[in-house]
Write a structure and sequence with these properties.
With 311 residues, this protein is α/β, with parallel strands linked by helices. The chain is 35% helix and 13% strand. Strands 1, 3, 5, 6, 7, 8, 9 and 10 form an eight-stranded mixed sheet that branches. Strand 8, helix 6 and strand 9 form a beta-alpha-beta unit. It is globular, with a radius of gyration of 19 Å.
């Protein structure tokens, strides 16, 4: 087919597809010297818990991978470099009436195409409160829950997911919205969602890494084709944020069965070239890859010390 004919029938670019985060991540770490490929969580079936009551009568919780700001842990502000010192390694709870300042400097969100200046794009409490005020849901759980982003599947499955389930049950949660940020965050919340569903709590993940979530086989997934760090809508765009969480609720109540994926109609930009950049080694020089290896080793050492201290 000629280029002229393609333009005439208005085909989209072949590159305007969901980013292959698993392959990009494997290639990236191999390029900086870590040649043992990471094993992403993979299932072919999923547990599924239907809502037991209408959403207007249900209590809904938020589960996040964002970290509470701690001024003693270095730069965590908008656009900050990856900061492993800000990581957390245990599940935490926060009050929805007095939520902490949540940041994402500790994870690998898309620092090229988003600046992390609006926490509502990764922590949708204001949007959910607006929907609760309209009667769309019965109530918001009194606490939200922080899920540690852990590369260890076993720790997430055996320790963190059961702890989040215990806290959800204590708050009388009927359903949960899980909002990841980085690639591993998407795996983490997928494993948590599977555990909650297997134990009677309906879930929906609102995220940006389609391949990772579907590889882990989720009950319900709202795919937002945005740069990582914007799983709950566009920054400084309340209409986008409200639409995204409303759509997540629709997926929660209308999914016909497990492994339901719905793609949001919202687009980050009409220009899809942003999808070429995230951890794409084809766009990095040998010098850049060497620098990233040094930075990664330094951050890994910091994270290891913090994790060992917390153990």
């Amino acid at each position: 087919m000629t280029d002229a004919l393609e333009r005439a029938i208005e085909f989209a670019s072949d590159t305007d597809v969901p980013i292959p985060y698993m392959q990009r991540t494997r290639d990236y770490y191999a390029a900086i010297g870590y040649t043992t490929p990471y094993r992403w969580a993979h299932y072919t079936d999923a547990p599924f818990t239907p809502l037991t009551k209408p959403l207007a009568q249900s209590r809904v919780a938020i589960i996040t991978t964002a970290s509470p700001f701690d001024a003693t842990k270095g730069d965590q502000g908008p656009g900050a470099a990856y900061n492993s010192a800000a990581k957390f390694y245990q599940v935490y709870s926060g009050s929805i009436d007095n939520p902490p300042d949540l940041r994402i400097s500790h994870i690998a969100y898309d620092r090229t195409h988003t600046t992390a200046t609006d926490s509502n794009t990764w922590f949708p409490l204001p949007a959910l409160k607006r929907l609760a005020a309209k009667g769309r849901i019965g109530s918001i759980a009194p606490h939200f829950f922080g899920a540690p982003t852990n590369r260890s599947h076993r720790v997430t499955i055996d320790t963190d997911a059961p702890e989040i389930l215990t806290r959800c049950r204590a708050d009388g949660v009927d359903a949960a919205i899980l909002v990841p940020n980085c690639p591993v965050c998407h795996q983490t919340v997928s494993l948590v969602a599977r555990h909650l569903e297997a134990n009677g709590i309906a879930t929906v993940v609102s995220g940006c890494a389609k391949d990772i979530v579907e590889h882990a086989a989720l009950p319900r997934f709202l795919f937002n084709d945005f740069p990582l760090g914007n799983s709950a809508g566009k920054p400084h765009d309340v209409a986008s944020q409200d639409f995204t969480i409303e759509l997540a609720l629709r997926v929660l109540e209308s999914a016909p069965g497990p492994r339901t994926t719905v793609q949001s109609p919202l687009r980050w930009s009409e220009d899809a070239s942003w999808k070429r950049d995230y951890n794409n080694i084809e766009q990095m020089s040998p010098e850049e890859l060497a620098r990233r290896r040094r930075d990664f080793d330094a951050q890994k050492a910091i994270a290891t010390n913090i994790r060992n201290s917390a153990a």
